[in-house]
Design goal:
single chain, Aminopeptidase, 2 domains, 3-stranded antiparallel beta sheet, 33% helix, binds zinc ion, membrane, transmembrane, EC 3.5.1.28, hydrolase, transmembrane helix
């Protein structure tokens, strides 16, 4: 059984509110805190208490929320996260296409299509070629009160034959060896540091993962992307996978990571570098996000 209780210190106004989650799992009580500038410890939390002190996010640093005249002020909010940026280019193709540029171009197109369709509000974690620490990306989305988080990447593989898109949800245990290797690459390359993936880290991730409704909603979003991407782009099977990605670890925000294709594959690199062929990917993602957010229960 998983029961989750939200509480805070009363500082509920504005985007910088702190969050605390008390998880009751099979009789054991795990206290987990997530704070923007403060932490709360629960009695009984024991050694499972996680406290992460982060600097206060200033309103000026929060991403801009884009709306169109077809979007209500209280419409669901999706935060799209173009992977990498700045000094971190991510993967590259042999002819010089860079993951950070493709991710930003795709994210921008998805936002524009969503605004055109109406019904959801959209923010990007970065709108320019700048570095953003991995941990900060979901925090920005949480601070905005987002309903969904979609991180966009493009993959690399040791062999040029690997081709097609994948969607990932968070899991402490990777669905397969490829997924595990990819999570390691993404976790290291985008943070610039070697993040631990040992037992302690997994225990902490598991405490966060117990937010069952978040995990279920993440799977729902991945299923929607599965449905809309079929026939719209080459896919790497199995399409849906899971691994321990830092950027997907929000306990409260349904999150997926979309790999648009392999830049080490010449066909994928060409397809994702050309705005005309890339548009099909952006359209499928936009349809999937819209379908998911407009049919899910309010969260
Ligand atoms: Zn990446």
């Amino acid at each position: 059984m998983v029961r989750a209780v939200d509480s805070d210190d009363g500082a509920d106004e504005g985007p910088n509110r702190g969050r605390a989650a008390l998880l009751v799992v099979g009789g054991a009580i795990l206290g987990a805190t997530l704070g923007f500038g403060f932490g709360v410890a629960f009695p009984g939390g024991g050694d499972a208490v996680i406290s992460r002190e982060l600097p206060d996010l200033q309103a000026a640093e929060l991403p801009r929320i884009a709306v169109s005249d077809r979007t209500g002020a209280d419409a669901p909010l999706v935060v799209i996260d173009p992977g990498h940026g700045g000094f971190d280019p991510g993967a590259s193709s042999t002819d010089g296409a860079r993951e950070k540029d493709i991710a930003l171009a795709l994210a921008t197109s998805v936002r524009d299509i969503l605004l055109e369709l109406g019904g959801v509000r959209v923010a990007l974690t970065r709108e320019t070629d700048r570095f953003l620490p991995l941990e900060e990306r979901p925090r920005l989305a949480e601070a905005l009160g987002a309903d969904a988080f979609v991180s966009i990447h493009a993959d690399s593989a040791p062999v040029p034959e690997a081709q097609g898109a994948n969607v990932y949800v968070l899991s402490s245990r990777a669905s397969d060896r490829e997924a595990q290797a990819l999570a390691r690459i993404e976790n290291e390359s985008a943070s610039g540091i070697d993040l631990p993936d040992g037992a302690d880290d997994v225990a902490h991730v598991l405490a966060d993962l117990m937010r069952r409704e978040t995990a279920l909603a993440s799977v729902g979003l991945a299923a929607s992307i599965d449905e809309e991407s079929a026939g719209a782009m080459p896919r790497h099977e199995p399409f849906r996978r899971s691994a321990n990605f830092v950027v997907l670890r929000s306990p409260e925000l349904p999150s997926v990571l979309f790999e648009a294709g392999y830049l080490t594959n010449p066909d994928d690199a060409k397809r994702l570098s050309d705005p005309a062929t890339r548009q099909a990917v952006a359209e499928a993602l936009a349809r999937a996000i819209l379908a998911d957010l407009l049919t899910s229960q309010p969260r």
